[in-house]
Amino acid sequence: MNEDKLTIAMAEDKSNQCQHNYMITNTGFLDMRQQTLCKRILRNNPEVKGFFYGGYADAERRVTVFTPDYIGAETEDDLQEYFLTNGQDNPLVLIRAKHNGYKQLSHRDYLGSLTGLGIKREAIGDILVTDGGADIIILREMTDFLLTSYGKAGRTYLELTVEDINNIIIPEGLVQEKSDTVASLRLDNVIAAAFGISRTNAAEAVKKGLVFVNNLQTEKVEKLVNEGDKLVLRGKGKVVLKEIGGSTRKDRTFITLMVMK
């Protein structure tokens, strides 16, 4: 069984477990491409509700959470609200790692030290690096192992604490505002403007599956982009379409983008 089929089979299994055992179930962490593969699973079983959840609103690595009807969740916001008052049911835990080293540790330092302990990638969510530490989202079942086994990233010693996931520290990224005009709000046009590439190259990137809209892969160049949509071009970065403006005399559309560095 190839990796894609394995991802889908895992999600189907968790959906069936939720239905038959009437309990919340979840997959491991999925990257954006894997989330796209699992999207149809969320619609296939009318007996359960399925949501992508990563611990905070803009998470990129997310688990699929399946909930029985007694939870009463209809949206991801509803699920977040449920976890606020039923934290024991939340499949994710926030580990805060602090250090007093002079060297600033990178995302790679933290991830490499975690996988070096034998922790599988699907057990690790987003790692948000801040000055003097990082907030690391993990599967709940990994908590005890990390607290007892994870003490160093490289040569730097770490101090770990479990924190309320709602108190996650989201670092302020370097954001640059960019204005441009596009012939239309088709995905290939907006990607070309956002990343400074030709429309032909943008269209090729979309068709190759390198473009994600709101964390979901899309290969349709004609897809229309909406205000507030998050766009990712793999290997290039992330932008948000902040505003759609009026038209120029040549009937092009003004757009404002927030480019994340």
From TrEMBL:
Q: Which residues form the RNA-binding S4 domain?
A: 185-245
In terms of superkingdom, the source organism counts as Bacteria
Q: Which Pfam families match?
A: S4, YlmH_RBD
Instruction: Keyword check for RNA-binding, yes or no.
Output: yes
Give GO MF terms, alphabetically. RNA binding
> What Gene3D superfamilies does its record include?
3.30.1370.160, 3.30.70.330, RNA-binding S4 domain
Q: Which UniProt keywords apply?
A: RNA-binding
Q: Does the keyword RNA-binding apply?
A: yes
Spell out the protein name for this chain: RNA-binding protein
